[in-house]
Amino acid sequence: MQRLWNRGCNWGDPIPTALMKEWEAFYRDLPLIELLRIPRWTHISPTNMAIELHGFCDASMKAYGAAVYERVLDSNGNIHVNLILSKTRVAPSKRTITLPRLERHHTVVLAQLLQYIKEVLAIPNVKMYSWTDSTIALAWIRATPAKWTTFVSNRVSEIQPLVGIDCWGHVGTLHNPADLASRGVLPSELQSLQTWWNGPEFLHRKWDFDSPDQPVETDTEEEKRTVKVLTVHVLESDNILQAIFNSSNLLRATRVIATCVRFIIKCRPKLYGIITGSFYPWELELARLLMVKAAQSEMFETELSYFKANSKMPKSLSSLNAFIDIDGILRVGGRLENSLLSYDAQHPILLRNNHHFTTLVVREAHKNTLHGGIQQMISYIRQRYWIGQIRRSVKYQLFRCTSCFRQKASEMQQLMGNLPAARVRMARPFSHTGVDYAGPIDIRSWKARGAKILKGYFAVFICLATKAIHLEVVSDLTTQAFLAAFRRFTARRGSCQHVYSDCGTNFVGANNELAKMLNEAKHDFKEIATTLANYGTNWHFIPPASPHFGGLWEAGVKSVKYHLKRVVGMERLTFEELATLLAQIEACLNSRPLCPLSDSIDDLNALTPAHFLVGESLHAVPQGETNTYISHLDRWRRVQLMSEMFWQKWNSEYLSRLQQHPKWTKIKELPKIGDLRFMAVSNK
Prior knowledge:
Elements: H1 2-6, H2 17-29, E1 50-59, E2 63-73, E3 79-90, H3 99-121, E4 127-132, H4 135-142, H5 150-162, E5 168-170, H6 178-183, H7 187-190, H8 194-198, H9 237-245, H10 250-267, H11 269-272, H12 281-299, H13 301-310, E6 323-324, E7 330-331, H14 343-346, E8 349-351, H15 356-368, H16 374-381, E9 385-387, H17 390-400, H18 402-407, H19 421-424, E10 432-444, E11 453-463, E12 469-474, H20 479-493, E13 498-501, H21 505-524, H22 526-535, E14 538-541, H23 551-568, E15 573-574, H24 575-590, H25 610-613, H26 632-657
Parallel strand pairs: 1-4, 4-5, 8-9, 10-13, 10-15, 13-14
Antiparallel strand pairs: 1-2, 2-3, 6-7, 10-11, 11-12
Helix pairs in contact: 3-5, 9-12, 10-12, 15-17, 20-21, 21-22, 23-24
């Protein structure tokens, strides 16, 4: 089977002729296995004088295996040898495998079999002997594991605890029954092989196994070749600075320097003693001081050379009253020596803000303060370090931190654009309409107890010019439900020339239904088609994921919810009750002033959306009738005059309030290559 697999044969491919002949010969001999008779009694009894276990192993390029025999010497001096257990494994299919490497495997299999039989038979003080015809394998087993390569060393370490080194011996190939297991035997030949069933001839004679001096052959290729090179470098400033600049983390750089310090200590055990295990705090502190000293030698090279030459600090550091401590580190003198602060807080280490070590210090402070703010990081750093222009370094780290940038990310905004023509031109109310859905709202199916609770919504229609609002209760979010609400709206408010909405599926479906009705009318009824063309509705959709394009109807939804939540609360209304309440909320919202009242005593009424619908506020007190007769023509002219006054007031007071930019007041530069930006990607 392995040779078929190595040749790349598939299940449906014909078997090669040579392998087919081998398989047919093996298949013809398989029934002969029924003629085999294996004795089950191993001649073990309490009167036995000695019991021994002898194991044999061998390997070939086809397979490797092992066989264990029991040798019993009874009270009459007779010797009985029986096969106890055998095991065979197919050789690995790797083409680079060699015979010496296969011999590593069969010794491990034999050691495991001997240990298993010893535990199963539970015979105390049983002697075990292991035999192999490979002198190379004997050389491996009798040497220390550390002498060999990793693969051989692991197997020798596994064999030696199971079977002692002195129990291994050499046997010739002709006297090794495991050779039959590694080469393979047909069932017709197996019955007559006495060496396989009863072991080799020398086991049936009296003999003593006393660690004979047998020749062994070593395999130099498997010896571990080690070259020991000991090089000691002094921790100079250049080496420490190189470790600092090669690291992006202060703790990692500290541990690198601490490792070098530990190595120097281990090279001088008489001076420092023997130190093992993880780093001690004083080692990490020493490593950090070495890094500070090396960094200061580069930051303040001129100042330190001046101080050594003149024994006084230069003027650039005089305001800090700087001094050099006993460790050679430049510190701030300050005025807090009499305080109860620690020595590092009283005299912090002096650093410049344009060095990589300072960047590592600020980065560590940002991490230890759990991405704290500017003031918190400055307070944390000044417990040990004094950094010039520290606020600039801290701000730079906050700007470079990806986590902080992600949490404070804001949307890309530009200067607010001009209002569309529908918002700033006079038109009949609801000729330009924005529509949106709100909800869901729990609706009771009836007033009695145990009523089923249904889910409902309400549609908000808002006039883009006058901000007049129309509310309709909708039972679900389907296109048919919205079309029904849209027909009720147009029946009371008139047809719409333009409708604006987001890209909701119900709105898109409604647009498709209206377009379908228009196309059908064009083919069937010319007069109806003409009417729909004259008074048809043009639907406009705002861009996806941009609700600020529909800010007008979003504000209308917010206003409706403001009243609805305060009036309804946790109570659940029926469909009729909800429709009545929404009509009252609609009247309330249509009575809101479009602009604040003026200071004139003559101007008592504010302009509201209801003025464009019914000529006055819906919440105004009705005026009594007068007896003065007015003709129909005069009444019509008065109504027209009132309408013109409303639009004149709309032009002079309301439109002027739309002039300002409430937000997005600056023109910002567009993103360019190299900028750090986060982009929201939709899964749709």
